[in-house]
Amino acid sequence: MLDGPRFWDDVQALATIGALDPKGIRRLALDTQDNHARLWLAEQGRSLGCQVYFDALGNLFLRREGQDDSLAPLLIGSHMDSQPLAGAHDGALGVLAGLAVLRTLQEQSIEHQRPLEIVSWTNEEGARFAPGASGSSWFAGQREYDDIVAALDDNGVRFGDALQECLMLLEGKGLVYRPAPFVPHAFLELHIEQGPVLEQLGKPVGVVSGIQGVNWYRIEVEGVANHAGTTPRQARRDAFDGAHELVSAMKAGIREQDDDLRFTIGRFSLWPDAVNTIAQRATFTIDLRHPDQQVLDALDSRFHALAEQEWSGCAVSLEATSRVAPVAFSEHLLAVLRESAGSVCARAPELLSGAFHDAIHLAHVCPTAMLFTPCRAGISHHPDEHIERQDAVISARVLAEAALRVLG
Ligand SMILES: [Zn+2]
């Protein structure tokens, strides 16, 4: 049985690293606090008698041997870096739940076939160095090392330089360097939901069936700037009007879609941005999400076709700036998680993740699945983020139960 109070002590202990006054945390990737968190986790692993490794991206691994060490390990984990003004549980909870599983096996001398490794991935948030999920995407062969280390933070510090400092620190503590990624047997990640569903259902844990795919677009609508008062209607080529019409046409096409579709314009700007001048240029972004690649592809074609047309006499240019395919998690692991939840509490609801997680990358190399635990009002990336201790403990127990089934 996983020791709930001991797990919660770990949650409190890690939350002191980078703690903000009066609440919240700040552990930007590879900063002093984030590195401190690594050392804390390494220390927990060592005191449990585990082997502690780090790799070329500063991902940290705590390993417990199995009865057959030739088998690929079960990997469990998440991330410990945070947004600039964050709560203590986004990412951290998943690493600590993994640590709690490790503690349970070690302290209760539970034997298993496969090795178990707990991992903390580097720079999931992408708050200091964009894009995020650096450690997991590199590990899973989805991004190149050279591209990752070239990223600069707001102060002009190179990811590669911050990483070197971190690696030297870990090396100085006598941790073992393991340069190359390996192929795990499976990957499990527990994370706070960052949405309201589980709280509304009153459930302590949910099984995550997959992660939505995301397309990002940048759109420019080009009109003609002119005097706001003297230009008659038929002579106006108003970029705002063009953008408004175009967006209406885009949304008209998606209104009939299911509730899984997410269409967000998070940025919108006009130029020259003057109160009495017709806008010459409207620039905006679209964040489009759906669990089904076919739906995303159909909308992608539709958006491109609409951008070929003129809107209020304005030309449009549309650029797809990012595409991440949706991921459906391993059916086998989902079944394991369902059964595990059934044996620990009751039937766990199934839901889809609207946010990225490290698991989206791991799913490319090994069977992967996730658990969610509720957070109050769905709030995250904010010091008001809050979870209930009993929910977290139940979720960690479901994770432990699942781990035992996979470890054999
Ligand atoms: Zn996270």
**CATH-defined topology of the largest domain:** Aminopeptidase
Give the number of helices: 12
Strand segment tally: 15
SSE class: alpha/beta
Q: Could you say what the CATH architecture of the largest domain is?
A: 3-Layer(aba) Sandwich
Silhouette = elongated
Summed up:
The protein has 408 residues and is an alpha/beta fold.
Q: What's the SSE blueprint?
A:
Blueprint: H1 4-15, H2 32-47, E1 51-54, E2 60-64, E3 74-79, H3 92-107, E4 116-121, H4 134-139, H5 145-149, H6 159-172, E5 176-177, E6 186-192, H7 197-201, E7 206-211, E8 213-222, H8 239-254, E9 262-264, E10 268-271, E11 281-290, H9 293-308, E12 315-324, E13 327-328, H10 331-344, E14 350-353, H11 359-362, E15 368-373, H12 389-407
Parallel strand pairs: 1-5, 3-4, 3-6, 6-15, 7-14
Antiparallel strand pairs: 1-2, 2-4, 7-13, 7-15, 8-11, 8-12, 9-11, 10-11
Helix pairs in contact: 1-3, 1-12, 3-12, 8-9, 10-12
This protein binds zinc ion.
Give a verbal description of the structure.
The protein is elongated. It is α/β, with parallel strands linked by helices. The model has no long low-confidence stretch (mean pLDDT 95). It has twelve helices and 15 strands. Helices cover 35% and strands 21% of the residues. The longest helix is centred in the last third of the chain and has 19 residues. It folds into two domains: 289 residues, Zn peptidases (Aminopeptidase), CATH 3.40.630; 112 residues, Alpha-Beta Plaits. Strands 1, 2, 3, 4, 5, 6, 7, 13, 14 and 15 form a ten-stranded mixed beta sheet that branches. Helix 1 packs across helix 12 and helix 8 packs antiparallel against helix 9. The chain binds zinc ion. Zinc ion (ZN) binds next to loops. Zinc ion binds next to loops.
